[in-house]
Amino acid sequence: MDVINLTKSTDWNFIEEVSKESGQNPSLCYQCGNCTAGCPYTNYFDFPVSQIMRLLQSGQKDTILSSKAIWLCATCETCTTRCPCEIDVANVMDTLRIIARRENKVSEKDIKLFYDTFLASMKQHGRLFEVGTLMAYNLKSGHFFADAELGPKVMEKGKIHFFPNNIKGRDKVAKIFTRFQEKAKKHG
Amino acid sequence: MAEREYAYYSGCSLEGTAVEYDMSMKLVLEALDVNLKEPEDWSCCGSTPAHTVDHVLAAALAARNLSIIEKMGTDTVTVPCPSCLSAFKRAHLGMAGDASFKDQVNDLIDEPYNGGVISKSTLQIMYEDIGLEEVAKKVTHALPDLVVAPYYGCILTRPPEIAQFDDPENPVSMDKILEAVGVKVSSFVFKLECCGAAFGVPKRDMVNRLTAKVLSMALDSGANCIAVACPLCQQNLDLRQSQVNALMGTNYNIPILYFSQIVGLTYGLTPKELGIDKLIVSADDLIRSRITVEELAQNKAAAEAEEKARKAKQKEDKTKTEET
Ligand code: SF4
Ligand code: SF4
To answer: What's the CATH code of the domain at A71?
Structure first.
């Protein structure tokens, strides 16, 4: 990790924002490393989760929000289960993802796109339409044949539905999204 | 035994790629005299993706369903998918613990949710509500060839504050259920290790490597198949096994069954109705050895008799040699 000038770069508002939204107190972390030791993704993270916690304590907003780690975290809850200070670490990671998305600083575009495609399917049909979601993701991500070789295997088993299962109340589900977006707009 | 009744929220996966979980779970619960009621016009729980957008939105997508269930007049909903379950529990606990959060969530949905629904996994109702004794009573068949690695996945019992079920580091409920129906269970240390399923599509290499670890640990534990309780885990371990083999140069061929399929087999249900034919890595060879418990007892008795005869003969031979 680079040397950080704490006097200049500590963003106190960011620490406050994360604490408030996650309901967790990052200053409780004493860097024991338990979370990182159990994290199945740590090999793929640019900053191990305990380092994210340290960066958070020192208010390193930009470094955190542009990190890959927050998007590669699978919310597996190992860190939360093992933190001796009872910090809900996975919730902190979750909150950081939400803020990164809000501030348009997403480092892992494909993961975000996949989530967005999932939610779009849900908004449209009320339930997840698996095939539609995968196809839309492949088109938008440019990975046209991602997992294409798996398609025939699933098809053979009669598990693929080529038409979405539209629920009756799908307008009600869409309304949840619209209301949320309206509210988000109002609050800036 | 009195009939039990629950609302049953199957979730989107069980309508598609995990249809065999739905088929087998329903049959097993039916055999256990459980009456399931499907919530009318349920919608997707929102799962992981909604949690990357906003906690209130995520809770609202789940709470729409909880509010439907609340109106059905059943106080408990049982959910086979740990991901849906976790979405329900998070919404419920979040709303119960914070009045302003509750208001924000209810503002987004048409019919408010008032906190009257308890969510439990299907594994939990079998283990805690129905109990091992009842579960064991329905067994008619044995699966002598099976050695099962029970795989719980990451969120079925974690974090403990949300899951409120079994042990967060060493869960035993699935082990115990499988043992109760007479199946051999291996001592599997990767019970909870994340297989990466949620990233299957956008981060394939990473996921394949994590999956490979789970598969190899299962073999090391002496198992020849894996039991799961999660549609995402199942899909990942089963469907992507060929990708893992291509990437890692391995040749894993480990059937990944839902625990409900295994229980169903011991209840004498046919592989077809349990959707065993829907698995990508075939379990046919493993379950071909299925016999009735009577046959098992006979075989056992025969084996014991043979053993006795052999020992007796040995003794006889020995005395003969000594005589000469
Ligand atoms: S386990 Fe908790 S205290 Fe230890 S480094 Fe991680 S967050 Fe900090
Ligand atoms: S929840 Fe995220 S950070 Fe925590 S152990 Fe799991 S993958 Fe790592």
So the answer is: 1.10.1060.10
The reply to whether residue B55 touches residue A172, judged by beta carbons under 8 angstroms, is no
Residue whose C-alpha is closest to residue B158's, from A89, A41, A178: A89
Q: What is the pTM of this model?
A: 0.86
Across the interface, of B17, B109, B194, the residue whose CB is closest to A74 is: B194
Separation of CA A85 and ligand 1 centre (Å): 7
Mean confidence (pLDDT) of chain B: 90
- Bridge-based pairing of strands B118-121 and B76-79 is parallel
Cβ–ligand 1 contact at A37 (below 6 Å):
no
The tokens describing A38, both together, are 């159990």
Could you give the CA distance from residue A173 to residue B2 in angstroms, rounded to a whole number?
37
Q: What is the pLDDT of residues A60-74, one digit of tens each?
A: 999 999 999 998 898
CATH code of B4-124, in short, is 1.20.1050.140
Tell me the shortest Cα–Cα distance from A11 to chain B, in angstroms. Answer: 22
Q: What is the ipTM of this complex?
A: 0.78
Contacts of A97 in chain B (CB under 8 A): 51-52
Between the CA of A91 and the centroid of ligand 1 the distance, in Å, is: 13
How far, in Å, CA of B146 to CA of B169, rounded?
Answer: 25
| Cβ–Cβ gap B60/A180 under 8 Å | yes
Long-range contacts, A27-34 (Cβ 8 Å, 24+): A27/A57, A28/A85, A28/A86, A28/A87, A29/A53, A29/A54, A29/A57, A29/A83, A29/A85, A29/A87, A30/A85, A32/A84, A34/A79, A34/A82, A34/A83, A34/A84
Two tokens at A144? 């046209």
In this prediction, residues B246-261 reach a mean pLDDT of 94
Whether A128 has its CB under 8 Å from any CB of chain B: the answer is: yes
Model pLDDT for residues B151-175, shown as the tens digit of each residue: 998 888 998 888 999 999 899 999 9
Domain at B138-294, CATH from 3.40.190.10, 3.40.50.11810, 3.30.499.10, 3.40.50.150: 3.40.50.11810
Boundaries of domain holding A73: 8-102
pLDDT tens string B257-272: 999 999 999 999 999 9
Q: Any idea which of A61-65, B14-18, B176-180, B295-299 has the lowest mean pLDDT?
A: B14-18
Show the tokens assigned to B215.
């598969």
Alpha carbons within 13 A on the beta-carbon side of B276: 22
How would DSSP label each residue in B208-271? HHHHHHHHHHHHHTT-SEEEES-HHHHHHHHHTHHHHHHHHT------EEEHHHHHHHHTT--T
| pLDDT on residue B317 | 81
Q: How much is the CA Rg of chain A, to the nearest whole Å? A: 20
- Please indicate, yes or no, if residue A2 is contained in any of the structural domains: no
